[in-house]
Amino acid sequence: MTDSNATGPNRRHFLAAAAAGSALAATAARAAPPDPRITEVQDWNVSWGDGVDATPYGLPIHHEAEVIRRNVPWLTADAVSSVNFTPIHALEGTITPQGCAFERHHAGAIDLPKADYRLMIHGLVDRPLVFSYDDLERFPRQNHVYFLECAANSGMEWAGAQLNGCQFTHGMIHNMEYTGVPLRALLAEAGIRPEGKWLLVEGADASAMSRSLPIEKALDDVLVAYKANGEALRKEHGYPVRLVVPGWEGNMWVKWLRRIEVGDAPWEHREETSKYTDTMADGRSRRWTWEMDAKSIITSPSPQARVNHGRGPMVISGLAWSGRGAIRAVHVSLDGGRNWQQARLSGPSHDKALHRFYLDIDWDGSELLLQSRAVDTTGYVQPTKDQLRAIRGVNSVYHMNGIQTWLVKPNGEVENVEIS
């Protein structure tokens, strides 16, 4: 649906503009001197390329060396307990390559061989069990695409526009196809006692990362995963085994999963009391806000992906997601939220996964105030930052899903701004 006051070219106007632009480009090309890149023989036309054994494990080509995860050095005291950010401004589609996928550690990424891996299930169970990696591979497996988003993604934006680039404002997220065993299958092997209502999930790293997980979620869609995007998990993503908790904050997705204890109440550990709770304006903190609400971001144009082509056809591209379901629609505004147009969703919208959207416009070179808002299948509409602040104040760190604004300048530069 498009608002009645929506602006923007229709398809016929867009195609006419594109055709006119092509004609002008063709005329300019005829008038310009020959381009040696196409009129003359180049080195790669006459010399051998690399053989098939040059890179036994394929690597990104060096021409794309800027497409990397990035850290913000002042964000934490030490990189061992820190975060780096997915270059979402430079990626397309929805699947995040593992080598670019955001990572967060609390005591560094550990080196745990498959042969030494063990997973223990104990507590309020009929049969305490220990599984090896080979044991897990014997269970029927499933493949699912899910996003993982840190609860602190966009957290610095609570106080206003802070970081100039969607890699830094929204890059604590990735979207991968996970392969693993449904957690309910392992719990069924152990046999949960009737009084078992909660799980404590714990990692094998030095931080002993642990979170309380309600049994209803554990028996629903949680995976014990050992592959991502068709290959083994990377070291920084929890190799050899991690938890996948679809739609819920990334801190719940415990890496190097080593222990699951069944109990009758939550454990109230550090990461669910002093951390990963939402501090309100009056100083009180909300807890158990696990689900990630609907959110979206325009990845191009954006501060790290400026407009280089001048006036004419422009593709606005972005990502939308919801921890409560799939994405039903995305609206895009060119004027800071006064008018909205419905974006084109690319491909089917999967449950609790990233969705790519596009809006194709004819840019006249004037300033744009770009915004996007997501609508999920529950009917939830992504709010503005001011709407969130009116309810929660500015003391929070987590669960900032307010609408982001980019200022596109006539020269093609893009800046992170807020509209008052």
What does this entry look like structurally?
The chain is built from eight helices and 24 strands. The chain is of the alpha+beta class and 420 residues long. The chain has two domains: 70-285, Sulfite Oxidase, Chain A, domain 2; 295-417, Immunoglobulin-like (Sandwich). The strands form six sheets. Strands 5-4-13-8-9 form a five-stranded mixed beta sheet. Strands 6, 7, 10, 11 and 12 form a five-stranded antiparallel beta sheet that branches. It is globular and about 80 Å long.
At the fourth CATH level, what is the homologous superfamily of the largest domain? Oxidoreductase, molybdopterin-binding domain
> What fraction of residues sit in β-strands?
25-35%
pLDDT below 50 for ≥5 consecutive residues: which ranges?
1-18
Could you estimate the helical fraction of the residues in percent?
Answer: 10-25%
Largest beta sheet, briefly? 5 strands, mixed
Number of strands: 24
* Annotated CATH topology of the largest domain: Sulfite Oxidase, Chain A, domain 2
Sum up the overall morphology in one term.
globular
GO molecular function: heme binding; molybdenum ion binding; molybdopterin cofactor binding; sulfite oxidase activity
Protein name: Sulfur dehydrogenase subunit SoxC
InterPro entries: Ig_E-set, MoCF_OxRdtse_dimer, Mopterin_OxRdtase_euk, OxRdtase_Mopterin-bd_dom, OxRdtase_Mopterin-bd_sf, Sulfite_DH_SoxC, TAT_signal, TAT_signal_bac_arc
GO biological process, one term: sulfur compound metabolic process
